[in-house]
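Write out the bound-state structure for adenosine-5'-diphosphate.
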Amino acid sequence: MQALMMNSQLMISSILKHAEKNFPDVEMVSVTVDNPRHRQNNRQFARRCRQLANVLKRLGAKFGDRIGTLAWNDYRHMELYYAVSGSGMVCHTINPRLFPEQVAYIINHAEDRIMFVDALVLPLVEALKEHLPKLETVVVLTDRAHMPESKLPGLLCYEELLAAESDEFDWPEFDENTASGLCYTSGTTGNPKGVVYSHRSTILHALAGSLPDVTGASNLETSLPVVPMFHVNAWGAPYAAMMVGTKLVLPGPKMADGETLTDLINSEQVTVASGVPTIWLALLDYLSANKMTVPTLARASVGGAACPRIIVERFRNEHDCTVVQGWGMTETSPLGTVFCLKKGMENLTTEEVTDLQCLQGRGVFGIEMCIVDENNEELPWDGKAFGALKVRGPWVTRGYYGLSDVPGDEDCPVDEKGWFQTGDVASITPEGFLKITDRTKDVIKSGGEWISSIEIENAAVNHPDIAEAAVIGRYHPKWTERPLLIVVTSAGKTLGREDVLGFLQDKLHKMAMPDDVVFLDELPHTATGKINKLGLREIFADYEFPAA
Ligand code: ADP
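---
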């Protein structure tokens, strides 16, 4: 028997319509190159999105076309998110921090004909233009007064295009499984791979992300996404915020600037903020160096890489702010697991709660997860057994753009049973808290045992004089592989091998104690700010452990 419910398609444009009707006066504050504090409300935002949809039509964009963006977190990028997807095109966000060859590869692979580019990133497009045969139109995200000098012919000005269009536009309704967004993984090996989001996956992801136990997004909150809009849709904040009427504060190109972030948090009374660990470490250092606090900030979401304990402790002790760690990937939209205490945990000590905050969080409805051993046998959720992590659900990818989506095929990330293979190694506690032990390729296989590089790194960065630490496995004649710890000391501090080993002595079990510690001035990073272990393996290709 068929149900009698309306088969309304889940459309991204419906979020915009809802926000305009229900939260017309909610503000969106942005930092841009041409304005350090731009403000508009949702009424103005929705009107500009309709004008932009008319611009896209005039530029000749067709249903299904990929429209490239090279932009920071600001209101114009938000307008592109809604107008491009809302009119049936694919919003293709590109990370300007990738290597130029990767950016060119991505633009060509996606066949972007039209691109919207921040003035600061224009030199990158100029440099690459001759390698981008399909690119026809470049629109600079600024007004006429701030149009940069450029040798690119026919550059268009965003505000001029908008001003020339009507603000009337009827958002079309179409199949909710239509592609709405495209984001390439940075890929430390091989070419970047495109993840294609749909209207349906985006809306379900935003709904799940707004649940009280997930981010608790609401009209009462003010949110500062420091995670870039060019990386996994800023973890879905642009959609969830408009859905529930959260005020958005967007830091533009100033994402790594402690002073701007502090000023935005305090002057706009930001209550929740999201970003990768490095951003938070930098902000915490800025705040303590300047003897400042962020009294309104109640929650800081951390993801993208394991959150060092020190971040949890400093946010709590210095700013009375709760760190909410989550795990996810570009391929999972990215929401997978998020920290939240369960009933019965009310009486845990601060230390015990911190222990849980340092795990990767609990499963969110919509994401099924399991861990398996080498024989693909499912492992128990006992907090001890660890193996390859697999997930599935309506906002998990089933293939990469232009590659096979047949489960089990070599270039399809989904196995025969329909599980997405994350490439992460994890254990899961009986309460359902995920603990990422490592990337499959980074785990150190020492004798028959697996050692987590992340565990050693986390222990090391808790040393007050260590700014950054990374662990890679290196050949060992007896154990096959042993951990080598690579350390960057904080500015002006010096440490020796024995200082570091002494510090770790009571924090790691014997097998996990690194066999050596070496020091570098800086570590190589990927475009998304993660430590580039492949680069480190190259640097230490000929390294040999000292004889015992
Ligand atoms: P990229 O592919 O550009 O590196 P992703 O965000 O897709 O960016 O990376 C996803 C990976 O990041 C995960 O598979 C996992 O290894 C790591 N990761 C994400 N969140 C966490 C976390 N909270 N703790 C540990 N690792 C994490």
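---
DSSP finds 15 helices and 25 strands in the chain.
The two ends are 73 Å apart (CA to CA).
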